[in-house]
Amino acid sequence: MSAMKKRQVAVLDFGSSKITAVVGERGINKTFVIKARKDFLYDGFADGEFFDTDALKGILHDCGEFIRNSSSEDLTVYVGVPGEFTSVTVKDSQISFPKKKKIDDKDVDALFDAAFVLSSTRKVLINRSAVIFELDDYRRLNNPIGEYSEILKGRLSFITCDKYFIETVRPALRAVGVESCEFVSSALAEAMYLLEPETRDRVAVILDVGHITSTFSLIQGDGILYQYSFGYGGGYITALLMRNLGVGYDVAEAVKRKVNLSRFTVGGNNDLVNVGAGEYYNAEKVRETIKISLDDLCEMVTDAVDNSGYVIPEYVSISLTGGGITHIRGAKEFVSGRLGCVIETLAPKIPLSGKPEEASLYSLLDLTLG
Predict the structure, then answer these.
(1) 296 backbone dihedrals φ, ψ, rounded to 5°
(2) d(CA 132, CA 242)
């Protein structure tokens, strides 16, 4: 008897500087087998809009062709929607039954349906999940299926996607023959994959810093309580280094990746960053430039916390992920000191590929493979 064929999925991960197309399947022990992968550089987005939609359509055409050529199946393409294009709504809901009954999937669906009706014609509901459920005996639990109760309550999280994003992406993929296309929240995928259930049961924070955009997510249970996206990323640091040092992009990137923010020296003018080919730059000036930029990030995170309306307990750390600043030595420690909280780096739980910049990609794979 031949072995059962493993289910394959295709994923498009939208970063703020590149789109990554992957065809993959589940490996052993919840790992992944990547059958095909390719990165496509593009101009990115800001303020809820792509910089160059015409160029993006051409890139999405290439993404679709790559996926179709990488599998003999007509795969559903799961598109990760960045926080910049999504909104989170949290609702409390309650339904009652004539008598105590065993809760089933239909009851949970009814609870969700009673809580949220999409009123905006400019948005599409893409995900719904529960922060917590509660029964008639006041027990609070993550999964009520199989429990007996006369009442089912829930605090529920709904994620909508801007129709603009869907109407930009879907037609471009269909033009190359990708008929089945589904959209999922990248932030929710990260929360469910990167954080342990016991961490989410209390409350958790993920700060995903990309190249030109970042997303702050407050998470509890299986849902996002609050989400805030803003224009900041590693590219902003590079741009400031270019201006302050009078160098080009490649040199500024090299300097950023060589310096250590945690290093203290006496006589900063003698402390140099060597980027090779006989090029040296004043390390203290580099550090101060990066710290000025990171100060901006910290201000935005503080605004996000203040605007959330939630009081985040002091024991809750911020989980930092994404490729924006995690590669800068000492950046995590600087942000931690500036915000007065513990910062932990969050990366996929897989050997060799466990890099923060791969967080959204592997989170989307995990969510779609189930």
Answers:
(1) -60, -45
(2) 47
